[in-house]
Batch of 3 targets.
Target 1
Amino acid sequence: MTVTLGHVAVVGLGLIGCSWVKALRQAGCTTAVSGFDRNLDSMQQAQQLGIIDSYSEQLAEVVADADFIIVSVPIKAVRSVLEEIAPSLKHNAILTDVGSVKGSVASDVAAVLGAQFGRFVLGHPIAGSERSGVAAADADLYRRHKVIITPQPHTDTDALQQVVAAWQVAGAEVEQMDVVHHDEVLAATSHLPHLLSYNLVDTLASRHENKEIFHYAAGGFRDFTRIAASSPVMWRDIFSANREQILAVLDMFQQDLTQLRQHIEADDVTQVMGVLTRAKAARDHFSKILARRAYVEPMKTATISYLASAGRALSGQFRVPGDKSISHRSIMLGSLANGVTEVSGFLEGEDSLATLQAFRDMGVVIEGPHRGRVTIHGVGMHGLQPPPGSLYLGNSGTSMRLLAGLMAGQKFNVEMTGDESLSKRPMGRVADPLALMGANVDTADSGRPPVRIRGGSALRGIHYDLPMASAQVKSCLLLAGLYAEGETSVTEPAPTRDHTERMLKGFGYDVQVDGSTATVKGGGELTACDIDVPADISSAAFFMVAASIMPGSDITLEHVGINPTRIGVINILKAMGGNIELLNEREVGGEPVADIRIRSAQLKGIHIPEDQVPLAIDEFPSLFVAAACADGETVLTGAEELRVKESDRIQAMVDGLVTLGVDAKGTDDGAVIQGMGGDGQFGGGDIVTYHDHRIAMSFAVASLRTAEPIRILDCANVATSFPNFVELANGCGMHIEVVEEGATA
Ligand SMILES: O=C(O)C1=C[C@@H](OP(=O)(O)O)[C@@H](O)[C@H](O)C1
Ligand SMILES: C=C(OP(=O)(O)O)C(=O)O
């Protein structure tokens, strides 16, 4: 990027201004740099260090020839600087500042240079440190840091563009914001923390034996008070210039602090835990943002791809993570129960964590997860509170559809949003029957999220014949039925997973199941219980297919849920000739589990029985890989639901297999795949996953039998259902390298 700024003048030779100028000089954007500071030493030092070429004790002289003027002085000094330089400004000179408060600088500019003066661009770099002065100047200070520019309606476009470019040259990520909004946001994120930090140090240092505090208060004190070493003059000015906004957040903080004090006084440890766990979750999320692992506009998450190459025969005995469907439901029912529910084996994947966060947002105190343990302090059927904003459910269809049912029964309004993939998935299938029950549910165009539910509707029980075999829709209606007048019954066209029915019973709620119809009566209560979440058969499926297709393999997967509504993958693999044994079958907390031993076998193509489709609905991506390794043709029909999952899974799998040299064709409701047979190998290539976790993992499994490396793109979402997939896969014989590309702004 070539940026020509001409003669640059910097007024105020502190860390902020000097660092920027240093970066500009290094990039060759300046023809000359002059500097001014009230302090002669600083000017001399800046010249010696080559940050400025010239200085003068007369401010007017420093700016007289300048094309680009950086005002980098404490906020309250801006006005007098402007008054002093106004008469000497070159026609068309561009001015900008670096202050933490924009409203007061905007008024100073208007008062001194005129309300329509368009050459002053208000800016604020979110960087800096408690270090200060010329000597600390660092040309890299702004690299990958945000700079907020707050243009006004009368700001000249060319001046704005130059200032943006000058920041970009220094490596900054420039964002634009409205002046008032900036001051509100900064009051909360920067000004209040500084105020508290200064205040705490002052309180402790003045009331206690100083030596004791500074001697023993190592960790917490040091971390919390680092920023109290910042410049007092600068912060005095900020607290004064942004007074109103700071007072507003300070009041909010004081209220919350008073409440926390009350909880501690009353020894209400649950409420105290609520504050701590919510704060920890928020802080952990923030750490992810800093590491660019969380998606936050306008930052993109780091892109993760897998480079997968041929593996060896699989061996080992291990446990895959907890069942996603059961994990979601444990949070939902635990939150609405009376009493404390203890969950073990909880899936710490992004999907189930999205459900957990949603309930935290609605005021439920949830401890953990920590190594799969979660403690939920249930609030009872009517104890949820309105969330502070929309419920963001990430990639998780289950969260959104099941929550839609529960939210329909609340007194408050809720909006539910999701990521790009979830935002394309059909929600009319839950919104329509909920409306029949009397709920007030709105979706965006053609039934897509966001889903908005108005609270306070009186729900009435209905009978509903499900138009498709969907456990999510069934569960949504049963959960709404808990809040409805009378009976709600749902009849499904084919059996689907029945975890909701089982878990409701586990929480002491009466559910009648009669053939394909499940019925609940509204108005009951849930009683807390302990839940042992089995390993997820949907995650186990990748290893079942992997061991089946890789000659010489012999693995055992521990404690896998084998609920009869979930074992389609076992039935289908067995029908294809798979060597699968269920060992140590037992029941835990109302769900059957077993250890599953899989040995390699030459599979053969089959026409997959349609009654198995709902029982293996999430396992088809990996079953497509099994089919590609089989002898002969595999035909799938009756599986149109695959087209509305996280991606169109028929298309994504067929395209990927074709890329790897397999003869595969998609049909409206399934696919036809010609198996490569025993000696067949996949070719290499790039796989488009459409950010779908199951597509990514399925092609990783395929790589066991690849002749050339397979590059699998966009695999970050594997963390939605199977966070330690690569670790387990590589541990038992696969060969997957994770390639992470830096996030882009
Ligand atoms: O109820 C559940 O937990 C799920 C039901 C299925 O969705 P559908 O109900 O849309 O088939 C499945 O695909 C999803 O992964 C989880
Ligand atoms: C379809 C899936 O999940 P969901 O519908 O919850 O996004 C899945 O995990 O394969």
Target 2
Amino acid sequence: MTVLEEMIGGIRPLDQGAMAEARSHQDRLTKPRGSLGVLEDVAVRLAGMAGACPPPLPAPAALAIFAGDHGVHARGVTPWPQEVTAQMVANFAAGGAVANAFANQVGASVTVVDVGVAADLPSAPGLLSRKVAYGTADLSQGPAMTLEQAAQALATGREIARDLVAAGHRCLITGDMGIANTTASAALIAAFTGEDPARVTGRGTGIDDATHRHKIDVVRQALEVNGLGAGAVPEGPEAALRALAAVGGLEHAAIAGFILGGAAARVPVILDGVIAGAAALAAAGLAPRAIDYCLAGHRSAEPGHATALAALGLRPLVDLELRLGEGTGGLLAHPLVCAAARVMHEVATFDSAGVSEKNS
Ligand SMILES: Cc1cc2ncn([C@H]3O[C@H](COP(=O)(O)O)[C@@H](O)[C@H]3O)c2cc1C
Ligand SMILES: O=C(O)c1cccnc1
């Protein structure tokens, strides 16, 4: 077995029996059929993932924030200096970022993983050093990563997922930090969906019209120089790995691996925003079944995110015009996913509660 096959293997299809049982259980609960809307689908998916009805409560949750820098930063696609990536890693480790506040709110643990920050970072509690490179190369000039670097970051993400589940977590949440990573995200989304860069490239942390036009041009150049300009990436893991390495970031590769790891462990993975959406497209190219274990935490204001979610067939749980990343939107969705599962454990049936069913 090749390293790639090993990494993408071991993901079981959703358990159709447990899903059928979950659907019929939902229909016996003391509520009109279908009245919990999308949350009923979430509960059924959770049963399919775990192979059990009722599904286990998806708690405690673990947020993993993968951090990396981007050679394309040199092209002026973001107003923020590159060193903010390293500074925010220190901020996460100190507990001072929005992701930390939201994690505290929902009771999630926070693990920060340096997979590609372009600086040596002082060690800190909760910070794992898994540096693959000091940032990527400029994706508008050639491949951002070698295939080996992309594979190493994938393996790292997968391992972190496995370790977090082994430590008792029952839900994984994706997080990212990497100045300029909305440019790499747009390039990945355009590559995997075949969409025009102008439709999927957003303003990231906030740029003016002229910089936005320039950012779209940079994404176009990235696709052309890497041979990804003509339609969507073909199916199959080799093509997916090549595209991920060509225009992705080290944190995208690690998040894709994290998704594969969560799926292999049969644990739900709540995706955050546009960076996670782009990484999930790569994970889907590597192992389509992995997406069965993903829930879209929210829909970000970045235009490419909706494109990615549509291609993945995922419906976002929260839509608050967030455009931060870090895992913030994924964290906010966690209580909703828990509520969907809790209904299956705690709500009485018409029989058990002696409630009359509807007449016709
Ligand atoms: C202080 C600060 C905190 C952040 N937390 C997440 N991001 C988000 O913004 C960055 C991507 O946007 P762009 O492509 O426009 O650079 C990523 O680091 C992402 O995680 C942040 C950005 C900043 C500046
Ligand atoms: O959609 C996101 O997650 C996002 C948007 C802008 C900047 N960083 C992240």
Target 3
Amino acid sequence: MTEVKTKVREVKLFIDGEYVCSSENSLFEVKNPATQEVIAKVHEASREDVDRACLAARRAFEQGPWRTMTVQERSNKIRRMAEIIIERKEELASLEALDVGKPYPVALGFEIPRSAHNLKFFADFMEQQGGEVYPMGEDFLNYTRYEPVGVAALITPWNLPFMLTTWKLGPCLATGNTAVIKPAEATPLTVSLLGEIAKEAGIPDGVINVIHGYGGNSAGEFMTAHSEVDMISFTGETSTGKAIMKTGADTLKKVSFELGGKAANIIFEDANLDKAIPESIRAAFMNSGQVCLAGSRILVQRRIFNEFIERFKKAAEELVVGDPQDALTNMGPLVSEEHYQKVTSYFEIAKLENSTLITGGKRPNLPEYLKDGYYLEPTVYVQEDPKARICQEEIFGPVVTIIPFDTEDEALQIANSTDYGLNAVIWTDNLQRAHRVSHSVRAGTIWVNCWFVRDLRAPFGGYKKSGVGREGGHHSLEFFTEAKNICIALH
Ligand SMILES: NC(=O)c1ccc[n+]([C@@H]2O[C@H](COP(=O)([O-])OP(=O)(O)OC[C@H]3O[C@@H](n4cnc5c(N)ncnc54)[C@H](O)[C@@H]3O)[C@@H](O)[C@H]2O)c1
Ligand SMILES: O=C/C=C/C=C(\O)C(=O)O
């Protein structure tokens, strides 16, 4: 592990089947969030590099054979990528832990296997798909084909880099498109390996290209403006989604956006707290709270409010914050100084808004070698006013707010009072209430008595400012295909 931690890697661009340097020889550094040591020097894609990547993807799309091979041939190659990911799971997990600062067991046990599954699932799923036939009596016959759209820009954030990239890449490839991928500048390590994984799996050159760089006035913007890119699948902040939509508008690109969240986690008085408390802890603090689906607003019914707070506080204080490579660690550091500044700015806001600090709100005491990492204690506030900024804005760190409520109607009103609508969590043993509340919360995913349980066939995406469109199962296939109807006169 020490060698993994201290080595400084050179991360190149992967264009048209080859790892290449930035044409302007511009490199940026990536740091280990746990220690702030430099772990990689990354080639930044210039406008010319982005152009080459988009043209390579276009050529690979137009000239084939990717688009024209049988579904089974394509799916076999995608499944081979999934197998290679599993063969290399320890290496990928330690790189992800190093780059993002997340606990190694989480990367190894959840994210890397899920990444392989993202590819295998869509390869298998695509093999089950067909077209449609609409006969018009004896005179005409319609049949419908689902054809790939072309070149996709896949842009992903730093919190779950490999998992979220493969979640887009699986359906993109399975439907016969080609891709230009840009991981977040803070966490490019695992995604950069997709080039060699694709090559080993026999994916033709140009089908997968990986470029690196920043967003505005850098690789992200260049690719979303590029005339050879037909569609953009983006996961990240709501404000970035708006910028990308504007840039993509000139060339009328198709977009699919998975954006921010501020999930209500509603605990009714009849909930089983023995389950609700540990899951609410996971929903609040997994990946240091840097999860779009985080249950960051906990709404608790007044009758159980004090008991909930006491037990939740105790459980939060038991979490081990520390070195992500240490097997006992529950919570690593935040990803960067910039993000730490954003998250800790909410401590001041919380004070100004008269929130009550229950626990946390500061750096934990840690060994000397971790002194430069951006660590925070799990932080819990109580706030009576659901309109306060800490109840409304996505903090994206280990900070949750507990809000009391009296009635089901009040809980619903609070749950629906933010601009976001990605997901919500409901804890109740009352079946009717579970359904009633699920129907009335305006969010794309509702988890009842559980959190972050995923079936990849299910639609995934957000209401309101949490997204545009849905991914998952046939929803992903619809985004990555054009439906073509062919009408034939039969005589
Ligand atoms: N809804 C979901 O499924 C989901 C999943 C994970 C994260 N997120 C959201 O992601 C955010 C955290 O991630 P982040 O800080 O990396 O997000 P971000 O929006 O800052 O960056 C995401 C990606 O977009 C790129 N980018 C930034 N500006 C761009 C521009 N103008 N044009 C093109 N590309 C641009 C970045 O370089 C990065 O690769 C949170 O808001 C979180 O809720 C959402
Ligand atoms: O941080 C966000 C988590 C997103 C999860 C998914 O996109 C998924 O499970 O498919």
